[in-house]
Amino acid sequence: MFRRIPLLLLLALALSNAEAERIKDLAMVSGVRTNQLVGYGLVVGLNGTGDQTTQTPFTVRSLKSMMSNMGITIPPDINLQLKNVAAVSIHADLPPFIKPGQTIDVTVSSIGNAKSLNGGSLLMTPLKGADGATYAIAQGNLVVGGISAASAGSSVTVNVPSAGRIPNGATVERQVADNFGGNSPIVLNLHQADFTTAERVVEAINKTFGGDVAAAIDASSIQVRGPAERNQRVSLIAVLENIEVAPGQSAAKVVVNARTGTVVIGMNVRVGPAAVAHGNMTVTITSDPIVSQPGPFSNGQTAVVPNANIAVNQEKKPMFLFNPGVALDDIVRAVNQVGASPTDLIAILEALKAAGALKAELIVI
């Protein structure tokens, strides 16, 4: 016969399950990472929107060098006037474990004064890594999301026409060496360092496999003993990344963007006892000059006497009181009741922090 479980316990269990996340979403395997590639090339076939060669001489030099490699010699005294060629930079991310012959997406960006890359084609360009070795070759037709048009001295631009992408535009030529196999343990690096989360990950892994399989190195890394054979390591990581863990709650923080007026308040923010009154005073000054006319036959002159009307209007906003341990929803409700704008909220939060009543880290970006 089953015992009756209290409703409060059921709610707590439901909340704990709802907050659980997979280790795949909390951490990454050390050494399994992307690598950045970059290259320099030429985009041709533009409809008169390429580089102005008088201002970008490197475009002409690059074209002459390319044609020279193809056996076509252009005399150095000839000044090419091109409008359908643009010098571009190409960058891409090389995923882990990708093999030669597979393709990756590339992003192409103008580095000269080309108005648009729409309709252009990238010529064969080597993409190099940080070590200077070539890992991929890029070539293909660009997909540009922006447009630009000009006529009779007027122009309009939508999005950014000087950059585009080539889906599957680069073919991988070299594989990046990895140390995935071997006798070294598997290390999981948390996306956000947290001692509580690291401890819970270790506990969940040891509970799943039994014994002391996992151990925390620090607040960011967890070491897991694994087999040396690559196939077995793949199977182990497949199980590891699907283990669910309830991450620890983040530290209390309030992030303020003073430029946009954006305020983000964390769930653990608390406010100590404090009373807040915030209002705006508006001073209006209007000019109302008085014209003085002389009496008849007085030989006087018309005079203008300056006069100003000054009005002071101060908004009467109520004072609201924060009791000890006020939570996020109470803070938002109180600020909404007083009718504070985002700018006013920033000023209130800074004043609460200065008074020592805001129990959180105030970050201004």
Care to describe what's here?
This protein has 365 residues and is of the alpha+beta class. The chain has three domains: 138 residues, no CATH class; 67 residues; 112 residues, no CATH class. 22% of the residues lie in helices and 35% in strands. The chain contains seven helices and 25 strands. The chain has a six-stranded antiparallel β-barrel. It has a four-stranded antiparallel sheet with strand order 2-11-13-12. A hairpin with a 2-residue loop joins β8 and β9. It is flat. The N terminus is likely disordered.
- Rg for CA atoms: 34 Å
> What best-fitting shape do the alpha-carbon axes yield?
flat
- Helix vs. strand class: alpha+beta
Strands of the largest sheet, in order across it? 3-4-5-10-7-6
What proportion strand? 25-35%
Mean pLDDT: 80
Number of strands: 25
Q: Summarize the main sheet.
A: 6 strands, antiparallel, barrel
How many separate helices?
7
* Unreliable residue runs: 1-18
- Quote the distance from N terminus to C terminus: 59 Å
- Count of the domains: 3
Estimate the helix proportion, in percent: 10-25%
